């Protein structure tokens, strides 16, 4: 997980916009559809974009979605990280899903840049976000015969929480770059990742955190050089994809800080996600589940491999060269594994 002002670590990811015409066969009705044919769709006017109304305890708001492609049995809803990041992290999905005929939906959660951004902090709870995802599912006509839910980082946490409550609506679940315990995440960050830095650098970072001096420009400077480029996205900053930089520019710090806090090595005391732990509940997830871990992630890959063994019907995808955004820095392994999972589940091979 990361914090806004300075490149959040709880980044989370995926989507498309154009591509070749691909034919998919509907196994249930033997009806062939054209992948990029928008005719007779209610979102044709804006090319797949739809503002979905969401009912909340504080009134009605709207969230932004964009549907890409047509496939009656494979529809992937992408949950971005943060909280408060954007769907833009998943732009690279455009390079892979269309050629495989997999339909997917970009989605900015309430409070994120392309959706409404109310300032009432009482809206930023896990339960309300789960209810929001359920309302989006219904509005988009997703169901157990076609609905794959993908979540990365905070989105992975949200995907788990949705599955605990609504897994009967799912065909498949993907938990990407997210552990099942934030205390374990913090332990891994401080005991494993931090000590990989030069000792004096890590000591200075910890001192800044202890002083809660998060606005100190030195904090961001040290993290950019010694942490982000090694564990968030393993590329020199000047080579980070434009879509990633755009998402960082658009992050909503009010949502992020309230739920996650400022720290890059755990959850700040007082943040609402502090203490979140669902390890004991993973065994209740029965839907086919893919857990994605990466060799250089901010999240412990061994923990995520364990998660895949805890759910009733799990598979582990390891991206050895990847970090928190492994869809970019271990892209071939990431997409080959993700596409194989979606197709295996769809074809009854999982």
UniProtKB/TrEMBL annotation:
MF annotations from Gene Ontology: aminopeptidase activity
E.C. number: 3.4.11.5
Highest classification ranks of the organism: Bacteria, Pseudomonadati, Bacteroidota, Cytophagia, Cytophagales
Catalytic residues (UniProt): 153 (nucleophile), 297, 324 (proton donor)
Domain AB hydrolase-1: 76-330
Pfam families: Abhydrolase_1 (PF00561)
Signal peptide annotation: 1-22
GO BP terms in the entry: proteolysis
Similarity annotation: Belongs to the peptidase S33 family.
Record key words, sorted: Aminopeptidase, Hydrolase, Protease, Signal
UniProt-recorded name of the protein: Proline iminopeptidase
GO CC annotations on file: membrane
Highest taxon listed in the record's lineage: Bacteria
């Amino acid at each position: 997980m990361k914090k806004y002002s300075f490149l959040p670590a709880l980044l989370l990811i995926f989507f498309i916009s154009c591509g070749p015409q691909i034919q998919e066969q509907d196994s249930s009705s033997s009806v062939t559809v054209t992948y990029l044919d928008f005719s007779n769709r209610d979102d044709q006017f804006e090319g797949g974009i739809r503002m979905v109304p969401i009912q909340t305890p504080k009134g009605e708001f709207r969230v932004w979605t964009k549907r890409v492609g047509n496939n009656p049995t494979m529809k992937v809803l992408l949950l971005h990280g943060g909280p408060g990041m954007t769907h833009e992290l998943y732009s690279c999905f455009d390079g892979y899903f269309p050629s495989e005929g997999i339909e997917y939906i970009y989605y900015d959660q309430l409070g994120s840049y392309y959706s409404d951004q109310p300032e009432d902090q009482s809206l930023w709870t896990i339960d309300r976000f789960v209810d929001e995802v359920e309302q989006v599912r219904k509005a988009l006509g997703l169901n157990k015969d076609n609905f794959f839910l993908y979540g990365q980082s905070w989105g992975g946490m949200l995907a788990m929480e949705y599955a605990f409550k609504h897994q009967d609506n799912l065909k498949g679940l993907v938990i990407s770059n997210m552990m099942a315990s934030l205390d374990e995440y913090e332990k891994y960050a401080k005991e494993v990742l931090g000590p990989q830095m030069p000792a004096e650098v890590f000591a200075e970072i910890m001192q800044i955190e202890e002083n809660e001096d998060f606005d100190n420009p030195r904090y961001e400077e040290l993290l950019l050089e010694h942490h982000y480029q090694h564990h968030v996205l393993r590329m020199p900053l000047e080579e980070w994809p434009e879509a990633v930089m755009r998402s960082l520019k658009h992050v909503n710090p009010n949502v992020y800080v309230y739920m996650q806090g400022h720290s890059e090595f755990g959850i700040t005391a007082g943040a609402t996600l502090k203490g979140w732990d669902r390890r004991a509940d993973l065994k209740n997830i029965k839907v086919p589940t893919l857990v994605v871990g990466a060799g250089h992630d901010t999240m412990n890959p061994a923990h995520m491999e364990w998660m895949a063994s805890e759910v009733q019907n799990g598979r582990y995808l390891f991206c050895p060269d990847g970090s928190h955004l492994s869809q970019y820095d271990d892209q071939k392994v990431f997409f080959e594994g993700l596409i194989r999972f979606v197709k295996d589940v769809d074809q009854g091979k999982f």
